[in-house]
Amino acid sequence: MTTASGGRVVALVPAAGRGVRLGEQTPKAFVTLAGTSMMRLSVDGLLASGVVDHVVVVAPAELIGAAVALLPAGVQVVEGGAERIDSVRAGIAAAPDADIYLVHDAARALTPTSLIARVVAELRSGRKAVVPALEVTDTIKTVDILGGVTGTPKRSELRGIQTPQGFDAALMRRAYEAASADDPATDDAGLVERLGERVRTIPGDPLAFKITTQLDLTLARALTAATTKPATNTADEGLG
Ligand SMILES: Nc1ccn([C@@H]2O[C@H](COP(=O)(O)OP(=O)(O)OP(=O)(O)O)[C@@H](O)[C@H]2O)c(=O)n1
Ligand SMILES: C[C@](O)(CO)[C@H](O)COP(=O)(O)O
Asked: Any residues with CB less than 8 A from the CB of 39 and at least 6 apart, and which?
């Protein structure tokens, strides 16, 4: 089944990270906001967008069962790898029947459904690689290994890139086939750029921020506390 003409949209949700920078006991995708795991919130957003046909969650090997228990029926769960790129690759292999892939971090749990729909709409209009982008507000500098400043890129040319990132499926498969294990890109679009293909930005959304640190978690919990009611099978989610 597909949501609309233009082919089947498969969303890959890398959720196999440890969350070292967050520093919780629980792997980050299982950490809860108002009683619901980030992983579940991200999947619910994708499903609620109305533009996604199938969701594949990529989870830590030892938590596959826990992930299945926390997710709606029909969501596929597969084992992740050491790096994010390995986890996304596992997702692609598990769902080869896509025409469009979205890749969406479990850690961007508050992403509005409207952003997901805008990425897919842009792909359906003929773009092959689409990423949400926000202007940066800090001045960004490059530094050497000792922390000495080596340059100050023009801020007007810089963007903070979010997910979901969307790709024509054939292009994404080609990008991952060409990807080198010893020089992994920090996002999926980076692999497409290396093929010389154009990646299009669309306006991102501040609510799609990546929950990376304790400060991010505090902000995310404050934002959800007043508005999110835990789903009946997800309240006080535990891992065993
Ligand atoms: N081997 C990995 C590493 C990361 N991810 C996922 O990729 C997303 C973005 O990564 P990040 O925010 O860096 O998560 P972690 O790798 O868990 O964080 P940290 O780097 O602080 O350990 C997260 O949803 C994370 O679960 C993944 O699926 N597999
Ligand atoms: C893909 C990403 O979310 C785009 O901003 C980001 O690059 C992931 O980086 P992380 O270090 O794996 O969190």
From this structure: 13, 15, 29, 30, 57, 59, 67, 70, 71, 106, 109
Domain that holds residue 199: 9-133+160-225
Q: Does residue 109 form part of some domain?
A: yes
CA distances from 98 to 58, 122, 171 (A): 16, 17, 11
- Global pTM reads 0.93
CA of 149 to the centre of ligand 2 (A): 23
Mean of the pLDDT values across residues 30-38?
Answer: 97
Q: What is the ipTM of this complex?
A: 0.95
Domain containing residue 127: CATH number: 3.90.550.10
Q: Does 114 reside within a domain?
A: yes
142 within some domain = no
Structure tokens at 211: 């929950």
DSSP three-state, residue 101: strand
CA of 210 from ligand 2 middle (Å) equals: 8
From atom 3 of ligand 2, which residue's Cα is the shortest distance away?
A: 162
Q: How far apart are CA 111 and CA 4, in angstroms?
A: 22
Q: Cα of 133 to ligand 2 centre, how many Å?
A: 13
What is the total count of domains within the chain? Answer: 1
Does any domain span residue 216? Answer: yes
207-233 pLDDT tens trace: 999 999 999 999 999 999 867 555 555
Count CA within 13 A, CB hemisphere, residue 54.
19
Tell whether the model's pLDDT for residue 240 goes beyond 90: no
Q: Tens digits of per-residue pLDDT, 62-103?
A: 999 999 999 999 999 999 999 999 999 999 999 999 999 999
**Residue whose entry in the numeric block shows the structure tokens 């228990």:** 69
